[in-house]
């Protein structure tokens, strides 16, 4: 298992998983609070700013916060140790995704990234992400909003959610009726909220975790 050091430059989600505020968060006029506390944030994962891990830290003018670079490095070290202990393959890629650090476990020359770390509906991935955030916080003393992906799960899920959201948006515009979507994680809700906002409509999150879901509202 090795760590890949890339130099390029991504959100996301989705956001985010792990903040569970009360009741509703309209997206009209600004970002959704709980989904961003944890989105994954909603920028396209293909629009990533990759930063070099190790000794080379970008200057402030390079657009990558040294604190976020540090978060990614700490997370990668933690995950590398975890993978070694579990004897699992995969390479780690460290990026800066918008206003958060992002780490992706991808296929390596030694073998494929362990899909078992995704779990049903991404449940294992969410748990691993929270564990990694805690490890980063323990090392840095600061709360982490780091995003973790395994085997491209979040990127693939984002693509599917965008298609689903656009279809639901079209239905709402045609019928003039609200549309309730199925329960989603914070990351997934943020992806949908961003699509709705871009389409000129309003969306809200309703319900309580783990059954929190997005409601798309018609235009006034």
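Q: What amino acid sequence fits the structure above?
A:
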């Amino acid at each position: 298992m090795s760590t890949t050091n890339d130099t390029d430059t991504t959100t996301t989600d989705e956001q985010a998983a792990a903040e569970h505020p009360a009741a509703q968060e309209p997206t009209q006029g600004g970002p959704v609070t709980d989904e961003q506390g944890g989105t994954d944030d909603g920028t396209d994962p293909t629009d990533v700013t990759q930063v070099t891990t190790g000794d080379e830290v970008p200057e402030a003018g390079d657009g990558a916060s040294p604190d976020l670079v540090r978060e990614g490095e700490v997370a990668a070290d933690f995950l590398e140790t975890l993978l070694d202990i579990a004897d699992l393959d995969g390479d780690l890629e460290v990026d800066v995704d918008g206003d958060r650090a992002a780490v992706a476990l991808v296929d390596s020359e030694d073998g494929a990234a362990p899909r078992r770390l995704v779990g049903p509906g991404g449940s294992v991935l969410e748990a691993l992400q929270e564990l990694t955030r805690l490890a980063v916080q323990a090392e840095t003393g600061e709360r982490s909003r780091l995003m973790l992906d395994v085997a491209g799960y979040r990127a693939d899920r984002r693509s599917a959610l965008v298609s689903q959201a656009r279809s639901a948006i079209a239905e709402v515009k045609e019928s003039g009726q609200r549309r309730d979507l199925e329960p989603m994680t914070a990351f997934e809700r943020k992806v949908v909220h961003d699509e709705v906002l871009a389409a000129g409509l309003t969306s809200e999150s309703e319900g309580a975790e783990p059954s929190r879901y997005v409601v798309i509202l018609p235009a006034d």
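Q: And what stands out in the fold?
A: The chain has one domain: 2-217.
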